[in-house]
Design brief:
The complex is a heterodimer.
Chain A (H helix, E strand, L loop, with lengths): L21 H9 L5 E5 L10 H18 L7 E5 L5 H18 L3 H12 L1
Parallel strand pairs in A: 1-2
Helix pairs in contact in A: 1-2
Chain B lengths: L1 E5 L2 H8 L4 E7 L2 H4 L5 H17 L5 E7 L5 H4 L11 E4 L3 H10 L5 E3 L1 E11 L2 E6 L15 H4 L26 H11 L3 H5 L26
Classes of the chains: A mainly alpha, B alpha/beta.
Bound molecules: iron/sulfur cluster (2 copies).
């Protein structure tokens, strides 16, 4: 299966989405990421039972914080798919990249760039 | 333990906006367990504040530190050597910790990052409920181990008021009637005789009515 996916995102592998914490998401944005999405197994199919439910809650909390600080909660999302769904993975990555392109660069990245050029 | 709740980020932003070097100070005990002011919450708040201020074009240094406890001299002393690096501290400890830090660092503005709610238990994931109001003279021995002071809105001490309906308090269907719980437990203990005993008038001087409370223990003083 050779699927085309956008090249402008980085994959960070986790043993289970339950490993992700709010701070991991926030740090990505603090470092200048424009968007972030977490891809977990189907709900109900987690090997550790609740990993992907925990991840969803944390993604929601991170989104709320990003909204409150003016970065935009829509920049972060959670997707669920099963490991055999390569085409869906590709589709989600295109969907997310398009969404972020629509939203434009993150205000954190813009502010950091502005600061760097001023220095 | 002491139960606290995170303050809205917006409120904290307003409190700190006039300071340039801010320390977010967590506490490793009660507020860590109730997920309001431990190391994780310190990291999240600090990151959120940094993002907010950078997008506002403001230069701020937001530092992070979490102490073992903020209600003990020895741990609070840990930050003394670096205290001059900050213009303000946002403490994520309960109100006790915030005040103890404020007393110790007289000229340092101390801002609370949480709302301290009650003395309670972790009833379920994401649910903390009140169990004690530190009345200073515990009556649990005769109430089946259920506290009528903290769990009854009226703090009645000799059976339920007239509003108790189907085991619920007249406050609403989400609140158990403390006296229903007490009766259920006394029945389970086969101690309903205790329920018949009229409780004497409670000495409320050990509660807040007597002013701020102190415990002095000559036996442990050095
Ligand atoms: S400062 Fe408050 S939260 Fe921290 S250990 Fe002391 S009582 Fe608990
Ligand atoms: S009777 Fe007083 S000390 Fe005992 S649990 Fe209730 S409030 Fe706390």
């Amino acid at each position: 299966m050779r699927l085309k996916i956008p090249t402008n995102f980085r994959i960070v592998r986790l043993p289970c989405t339950g490993k992700i914490d709010i701070i991991h998401i926030l740090r990505a944005f603090e470092k200048g990421a424009d968007g972030l999405y977490v891809v977990g197994c189907m709900e109900g199919d987690c090997h550790f039972n609740q990993g992907n439910f925990r991840a969803r809650k944390r993604v929601e909390q991170a989104a709320k914080i990003l909204d409150q600080v003016g970065v935009g909660g829509e920049r972060v999302r959670m997707y669920n798919l099963s490991s055999g769904e390569g085409p869906l993975f590709a589709q989600y990555s295109i969907e997310m990249v398009n969404k972020i392109k629509e939203m434009g660069p993150s205000p954190v990245r813009l502010a950091k760039q502005k600061k760097a050029t001023a220095a | 333990m002491i139960i606290a709740e995170k303050k809205p980020i917006q409120e904290i932003i307003e409190e700190v906006q006039n300071f340039d070097r801010i320390l977010i100070l967590g506490c490793n005990e009660c507020v860590t367990v109730c997920e309001a002011g431990g190391k994780k919450e310190v990291e999240v708040l600090a990151s959120a504040l940094r993002m907010y201020f950078i997008t506002q074009g403001k230069e701020k240094v937001i530092s992070e530190h979490t102490l073992e406890r903020q209600c003990d001299h020895e741990y609070l002393e840990e930050i003394r050597k670096n205290i001059d690096n900050y213009d303000a501290i946002v403490s994520l400890a309960c109100g006790v910790g915030v005040q103890f830090a404020a007393e110790k660092y007289l000229t340092m503005p101390l801002l609370p990052g949480v709302n301290t709610i009650c003395l309670g238990a972790n009833e379920d994931r994401g649910l903390w409920t009140e169990r004690c109001q530190a009345c200073g003279s515990c009556v649990l021995a005769r109430t089946g181990g259920i506290c009528p002071v903290s769990r009854c809105a009226k703090r009645v001490l000799n059976g339920p008021c007239g509003g108790s309906t189907n085991g619920k308090c007249e406050l609403g269907p989400d609140t158990d009637c403390a006296w229903q719980l007490i009766v259920d437990r006394l029945k389970a203990l086969d101690k309903m005789d205790d329920y018949e005993k009229i409780a004497p008038i409670k000495d409320w001087s050990t509660d807040r009515a007597g002013g701020p409370r102190t415990v002095t223990r000559e036996d442990v003083k050095i």
